[in-house]
Amino acid sequence: MAALGPAVSSCELRVSASSSRLSRLGTRCCCVRGAAPLSQTPASLSPRPLLASPFLTCPLQNTMKLIILDHYSQASEWAAKYIRNRIIQFHPGPDKYFTLGLPTGSTPLGCYKKLIEYYKNGDLSFKYVKTFNMDEYVGLPREHPESYHSFMWNNFFKHIDIHPENTHILDGNAADLQAECDAFEEKIQAAGGIELFVGGIGPDGHIAFNEPGSSLVSRTRVKTLAMDTILANARFFDGDLAKVPTMALTVGVGTVMDAREVMILITGAHKAFALYKAIEEGVNHMWTVSAFQQHPRTVFVCDEDATLELKVKTVKYFKGLMLVHNKLVDPLYSIKEKETEKSQSSKKPYSD
Amino acid sequence: MRDGKGASRAPVLRFTNCRILRGRRLLREDLWVREGRILDPEKLFFEERLVADQQRDCGGCLLAPGFIDVQINGGFGVDFSQATEDVGSGVALVAQRILSHGVTSFCPTLVTSPPEVYHKVLPQIPVKSGGPHGAGVLGVHLEGPFISREKRGAHPEAYLRSFEANAFHDVLATYGSLDNVRIVTLAPELGRSHEVIRALTARGICVSLGHSVADLQVAEEAVQSGATFITHLFNAMLPFHHRDPGIVGLLTSDRLPPGRHIFYGMISDGIHTNPAALRIAHRAHPQGLVLVTDAVPALGLGNGRHTLGQQEVEVDGLTAYVAGTKTLSGSIAPMDVCIRHFLQATGCSVESALEAASLHPAQLLGLEKLKGTLDFGADADFVMLDDSLHVQATYISGELVWQAEEARQ
């Protein structure tokens, strides 16, 4: 198995060449091994909180993290905290926007609610954030209550301080759909690429509307929806299959793979099999989320129910890493404490 | 910074931290206003790509559509039925003072009067938009003189008329011009009423049944001819009888034109209608209930004697009688008092109580696209209420036109 990226001087990149299932899950976070320059103690296996901010000392770590929380609400909160820390520590500004890819559906609702709460408390601002949504139905009027434009407006945009010009959602009513898709790819390029792409997973293992059989190097394009997806979406259209749109514009698997970091939210028992296929089986275009096994930096955020089809060994391993992974959300940064945060990260390697 | 498309554009106002009455429910939503109309913020966001220019924190208040009073005879000493030289200022005074009651549109009402009065007064009360100067005038409500002698109530007997002779021509001769008229109350049992009702309806005037001894059948036929309203239900009509419900029976009649239902005014001041009767009417037909004040010139004045039409009235607390009798002579309860009393007496939802004073009168007059709602595109006439439905502020076309003292700090 080839190395997944350049090794960084202060970190060890561990790639197992064995065929054990665990190794196929990707590299372990090097920070566990304690190779950090600020540490005084010898490296040990026990996951001690050695660094206040893994971001600052290991910016180029290539990792797959599986974050497991007990319940949906905790998973949503963890994800929101992660996004919050990522944005704040990026120090976005008028010349440096944080580009965020965003999903729709019931899974991210809890996460959006928390992000809104952080904005309302004055801890987070979306003033210098640009968003790119993953997909939109074709032929559904923009003002239809089930369009993804409506979803984003009602569940996110109207509650925060993002400027409309910094939001991008594919237009499913464009005269030339493929041109609309191409233009979307260009907009992403123009914005400097996506810093963090947040996504969900369908029950059929799809990312965005990249249905089973989609090319793993696909770009933004028009897709016909699979029956599984139409069935899953029927509940938003009064249970009437005839009312569900059959086509959608979607970012490609390749488009999401281009992001510098990918975070997939997976909650609920009905997604458990898809998660299993995505991370415990091979990379397969029938389960398009599996493509992220080959992405340098992926975070899967799950609740217990979503892990029901995984091996006990896998779940135990990653739960054991939660102490370390929680360093990514604790300390939790706020734009209100910009000054404190700067001094904290350089003087206090240990958190209390 | 983003510049506007071409010349400077109208500012977008966003009212936050409030609950609004929309889609028959109270929603935790912001209210967006531009150029005097309610704006769709989603459309503004995705199509025009704009944000609000100004924000107003409503302190958790309720925002309801401005109240519409379709039966008000005067107030603050002004009597709409008095033929003065300057009726306009009287109307303007009332229009300005009722803003504090949350009323943003109204129909000045004239009681039974001689033709000279109508000829002199009507041309002086044009339809007029509201604003900082006062509530908007939607048109005049002519209550009489084509009403029943027996059920005239406080109306002067001398000036009652019939249109048996020349039907609509009699109507025109009596009133003069109908240009500024919006509603006419008449008794359908009078001969040739069907011709009159049809003629009035054809001119876009709302016909209301009241001050009448009609039985249910006569009333139903009147509705089939075009009548759509009942003037102050229960008052000045035959009482409900189980074998002949009379006009009251219209609330549950199955002989109305398909797709239409009857609207009915109710004076909910705690005096004109017993709460139990209020509840019976509301439960029988909640969609048609229209709260009216039927306020007399004594509204807003203290106890004592005042003029109403061609007669004197005596005010005592919340009650007004025809001087020297026990006949009620209109109410002096302001619209917001009526709403609160209605809510408390019927135990209905806040949404229902507010709709009875806004949406329903707008529907009666066919104005529900622009008035009586907070739907996108409607006129931004609304009222800010606290949880006990006391008026905190009144807005017309998105502009603050009245504010409570405490709120002014």
TrEMBL record, chain A:
It is an enzyme of class 3 (hydrolase). Belongs to the glucosamine/galactosamine-6-phosphate isomerase family. Keywords: Carbohydrate metabolism, Cytoplasm, Hydrolase, Isomerase, Phosphoprotein. Its EC number is 3.5.99.6. GO terms for biological process: carbohydrate metabolic process; glucosamine catabolic process; N-acetylglucosamine catabolic process; N-acetylneuraminate catabolic process; UDP-N-acetylglucosamine biosynthetic process. Catalyzes the reversible conversion of alpha-D-glucosamine 6-phosphate (GlcN-6P) into beta-D-fructose 6-phosphate (Fru-6P) and ammonium ion, a regulatory reaction step in de novo uridine diphosphate-N-acetyl-alpha-D-glucosamine (UDP-GlcNAc) biosynthesis via hexosamine pathway. Deamination is coupled to aldo-keto isomerization mediating the metabolic flux from UDP-GlcNAc toward Fru-6P. At high ammonium level can drive amination and isomerization of Fru-6P toward hexosamines and UDP-GlcNAc synthesis. This is Glucosamine-6-phosphate isomerase. It comes from Myotis myotis. It catalyses: alpha-D-glucosamine 6-phosphate + H2O = beta-D-fructose 6-phosphate + NH4(+). Pathway: Nucleotide-sugar biosynthesis; UDP-N-acetyl-alpha-D-glucosamine biosynthesis; alpha-D-glucosamine 6-phosphate from D-fructose 6-phosphate: step 1/1. Pfam families: Glucosamine_iso. Transmembrane segments: none annotated. Homohexamer. GO terms for molecular function: glucosamine-6-phosphate deaminase activity; identical protein binding; isomerase activity. Its main location: cytoplasm. GO terms for cellular component: cytoplasm.
TrEMBL record, chain B:
It comes from the Eukaryota. The active site is at D294. Keywords: Carbohydrate metabolism, Hydrolase, Metal-binding. Pathway: Amino-sugar metabolism; N-acetylneuraminate degradation. Residues 63-401 form the Amidohydrolase-related domain. CDD domains: NagA. It catalyses: N-acetyl-D-glucosamine 6-phosphate + H2O = D-glucosamine 6-phosphate + acetate. It is an enzyme of class 3 (hydrolase). One of its GO terms (molecular function) is metal ion binding. Substrate binds at A154, N235, A236, R243, H272, L328, S329, G330. It holds the Pfam family Amidohydro_1. Binds 1 divalent metal cation per subunit. The keyword Hydrolase applies. Zn(2+) binds at E143, H211, H232. One of its GO terms (biological process) is N-acetylglucosamine catabolic process. InterPro entries: Amidohydro-rel (IPR006680), GlcNAc_6-P_deAcase (IPR003764), Metal-dep_hydrolase_composite (IPR011059), Metal_Hydrolase (IPR032466). Belongs to the metallo-dependent hydrolases superfamily. NagA family. Hydrolyzes the N-glycolyl group from N-glycolylglucosamine 6-phosphate (GlcNGc-6-P) in the N-glycolylneuraminic acid (Neu5Gc) degradation pathway. This is N-acetylglucosamine-6-phosphate deacetylase. It comes from Myotis myotis.
